[in-house]
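Proteins fold reproducibly. Consider a sample protein:
=====
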Amino acid sequence: MCLLINYKPSLLAKVQNKLRIIGGQWRSRQIHFNDTKHLRPTPARVRETLFNWLHHDIVASRCLDCYAGSGALSFEAASRGAAQVVLIDNNPDICRTLKANADVLKASQIKIINMEVLRYLSGNSEPYDLVFLDPPFGQGLAQPTCQWLEDKLWLRAQAKIYVETERQLELTTLPKNWALIKSKSAGEVAYRLYQRQE
């Protein structure tokens, strides 16, 4: 497991893309993100809907953000009171920017790991209350990642799993004990919230 800790102080000044945290202790603060081909920050209106859905689930929760990208969902969760948020991304430049954002916000509850997601999930499991899953489109990662989360014991008994995919993708092979509790679409994006059942 590799936790990135080194970055240049001027890094955020070089990264032009930014988004605003919607709620919580860092409300209206900005975080920066990389201009990377497959990186699609979750739009503000989708984040607002998602965190309305999760209103009672965030405080003191343990969150895992697979394919973290911009970190928009993780920083939003941390801002709203999550106890721990672990971000996984295989791009070292993205991880450096995430680390720089966390340092600017003094976000001690955030941990960034530079690793391929399925490799991370093949390791020793630490069950989470909430998982964000927003993989790059067109790479067939959503369904196998969901199955690994379940099979390799990364989820607490009543864990909630947020899955964001391309709108046309049908999720037909998810774990049978995941109940769909919310779903919407916006433009080319479909987003769904599942709850694990025992």
Observations:
- The two ends are 30 Å apart (CA to CA).
